[in-house]
Amino acid sequence: MLSFFAILALLALFMAMRMPIAFAMGLAGFVGLAAQLGLRPALAVLERTFYDSSSSFILVAIPLFILMAEVLTAGDVTRRAISACQAWIGHVKGGLAMATVGASVILAALVGSSTASTAAMAASAFPQMRSHSYSQRLAAAVVSVGGTLAVVVPPSIVLVVYGVLTETSIGKLFIAGILPGLLTATGLAVVIKLIAHTTDQAPKGDPFVFRHAVKSSRHVLPMVALMALVIGAIYGGIASPSEAAALGVMGSVLIVLAQRSLSFADFNRSVSGAIRATVMIVAIVACSAIFSNYLAFTRITHALLEFVASTEMSRTTIMAIIIVTLLIMGMFMDQLAILSLAMPLAFPTAMALDFDPVWFGIVVTKTVEIGLLTPPLGLNAYVAAAQTGVPLGKIFRGLLPFLAMELVVLLLLLFLPQITLWLPGLMLQ
């Protein structure tokens, strides 16, 4: 019989061969099940698990939120959001960079994908900052770190996947992510302001013109209203996340049609992009369930929980171990891969220690968000480097003060759970 460590080695081998994480986990889990149960029972478990995990109704929210993001992105949302934010605060030192953060919040609430947000900001905001003599290092770092807001700010796809994997309320996760997302954005703005006043990396932008600022906001207000409507429907208990996502798709289509900013070809590309992204995410969820079933049959999770119950380590120490492990994983893997690999063991451990599942989800999401900025992988830094042409090493150096701020926010979320749990506690059931 193959041991658990042999299956882990097989999983590591598949990943080293650059096999997609979904297939690597599914295949390794199936091999383990076949070794534990025999081929025919393993095939039966495979069939049942794949169907049960991929037919969950809550998964409907994933393609709908992605389609909403694709439609709005194709409808020139990014450029208009950046223009509006720059018109209001671009005239102060560091204003263009802070406007990029503000636009990143709007984009995060509409897109839900970190890499997509980073790519959009790198294409739109980076040239604007460079044209106003911002340093390459700061401009590229700002678009990289701004993109990470899409991981925490609802409707985050990462939060949806966490909710599906752990059977945690996605509605509560969305509402819980609002204050941490705004806290992160505020922290980014503070760091930018400090850099602007202590260096010459962020000079002033164009003079403020009230009429221009109002005019540039005209096309953005419907999108902000749509964002408030989607999140408000979930918060007020009027709609489930899936129903709110459907409302968001309808609203986004109406907005781009009214603004005449989306062609039929663009809409086709949006649907195709949503389908591709959805297939990838559902494959990760289903294959993660196969691997989780293997762990259940080996009783590894049970053994780990018994160890946690018998150890003399405190809850804080065990949580610190989980966080450090996730941070290290973030240096080498993307956020969905981390969730699919870590949650089958980390989530039961956290629940055994009586941590709140919603709070734990936001903390985990914040932790994997930091991984998007840390070398050697630092996925957002790679996306920004590819889009802007700025050397990767220069971007990572520019990210250092922002990483320090991100760690401060993570510590605040760890030691002040009410930042996360206050709004969900007020939700109408």
TrEMBL record:
Pfam families: DctM
The entry's keywords: Cell inner membrane, Cell membrane, Membrane, Transmembrane, Transmembrane helix, Transport
Cellular localization per UniProt: Cell inner membrane
Top-level taxon of the source organism: Bacteria
InterPro entries: DctM, TRAP_DctM
Subunit structure and binding partners: The complex comprises the extracytoplasmic solute receptor protein and the two transmembrane proteins.
Functional summary from the UniProt entry: Part of the tripartite ATP-independent periplasmic (TRAP) transport system.
PANTHER family found in the cross-reference section: C4-DICARBOXYLATE TRAP TRANSPORTER LARGE PERMEASE PROTEIN DCTM, SIALIC ACID TRAP TRANSPORTER PERMEASE PROTEIN SIAT-RELATED
Protein's UniProt name: TRAP transporter large permease protein
Gene source species: Pseudodonghicola flavimaris
Lineage, uppermost ranks: Bacteria, Pseudomonadati, Pseudomonadota, Alphaproteobacteria, Rhodobacterales
